[in-house]
Amino acid sequence: MTVDQEQRIPKHSKIIEVKKRHLIGSMIGNACEWYDYVVYGSLAPVLSIIFFPKDDKVAGLMLTFAVFAAGFLVRPIGGAFFGNFADKYGRKKAFIFSMLLMAVPALAIGLLPRYNSIGRLSPFLLLVFRLLQGFAIGGEYPTMVAYIAELAPPKKRGYIGSYASVTTVAGVLLATITVAVVTKGFTHQQLMAYGWRIPFFLTFFTIVFGWYIRLKLPESMMFLAEKVMNSYPVIEAIKNTKLEMIKIFGYIICIAVAYYTFNIFSTTYFTSSLNLNYLTALQISIVSILFLIILLPIVGRFSDIYGRKKTNIIAILSMIIFIYPVYLGFSQKILWLAIVSQFIFAGLIALYLAPLPAMIAEQVTTKTRCSSIAVGYNFALALFGGTAPVVNMFIIKHFASDLAPSVYLIIAGIVSLLATICMKDLTGKRLL
Predict the structure, then answer these.
(1) Which fold has domain 17-421?
(2) Which sequence spans correspond to the domains of the chain?
């Protein structure tokens, strides 16, 4: 925060010290978001039978992933709404509002009747609830990234920001463990009857807990310093930060495809293409996610020392170079080689994901930070993240090759590399 910004902070406000509870409170919604999405993705083979006709299993699975993708289509709308809200009324208020809106659909999905009970109304309602969740979640991550970056000391922004990625992965880990437990703890009949509902109920209660914690969060001092009651900050962001939003969009493309492939599609890939036991596939995912969590803060600190931009360029080049060998390892259908490949994939994700929160927060100013990030980030996720599972299934089937997703990732990596080269580097410097 600059001296000029400090002078503009309202007199009744106090400069706050960054504390763990501030970080945990801001990040818990992000963990809930990813918990919910991975639960849905991991249970896709089950949900496809519950909510769609049983005539064609492949079509049912693709429709399940299509509903997953549909939730992302409204994320840019939700992102624009909540980004505008956060830039106008504050990060804290946006946090609280978005979590309340996330809670209701989570509970509703857990209570939703099956296809054989209410017919086509079942998948329709599933789609409606996923759309509501997508709208709420659209503002969650951008607001969190802005809030953390504004609280963090400049020389530790990459390290502290990496914990935003840690909570992302922690949500994935918790979801994977939960699915593994219900899969192992229930018989197939019990899982199909009611076991699949339990992870969605846990989502609801976790979100309510996170909402309570967020009620006690302090507001960002940088927001208070720059606060302007502009009617539509998102319009100002589109007018004045178009280039920055395009760069963020391009930068996010590769990690959107890679991360959703790693966390959502991998379990399905292991079971369908490698014919592994479902529980074994989940166990492999759990161990590789733990490895990813360990790496993230290390890479975040590395980006503070050696530069955000340099770290990101290394990350994307590594993805482009090594992703084909990773899928080649998967395609051999040898268990130990598949596990090694999954661990390498986790390392590639860590290199990219750790500096990401600080990198995108540094591209835009405080006045429109949430709005600018929300538009660029959510459009990339809507077009390339949420569609990754269904696109991967399609290209594997179309090209009759398990290696096809690696080529998709390489193309995405080239686009993201060009965007990253054009981005600015504010490592160790104050935010604007």
Answers:
(1) Growth Hormone; Chain: A; (1.20.1250)
(2) 17-421
Tokens 């978001």 sit on residue: 33
Query: Is there a contact between 254 and 319 (Cβ–Cβ < 8 Å)?
Result: yes
How far is 333 from 336, CA to CA, in rounded Å? 9
Three-state DSSP at 307 gives coil
Q: What is the pTM of this model?
A: 0.83
Q: 388-399 vs 57-73: helix axis angle to the nearest 10?
A: 140
* CA–CA separation, 9 and 40 (whole Å): 43
Q: What does the DSSP 8-state code read for residue 52?
A: S
- Residues 31 and 137 sit within 8 Å (Cβ to Cβ): no
Token pair for residue 249?
């969009």
| CA distances (Å), origin 223, targets 77, 164, 217, 312, 386 | 22, 19, 14, 27, 31
Strand (E) or helix (H) holding 142:
helix 140-151
**Residue 412 near residue 257, CB atoms below 8 Å:** yes
CA angle 14, 18, 24 (to 5 degrees): 120
Interval 237-261: pLDDT, tens: 888 889 999 999 999 999 999 887 7
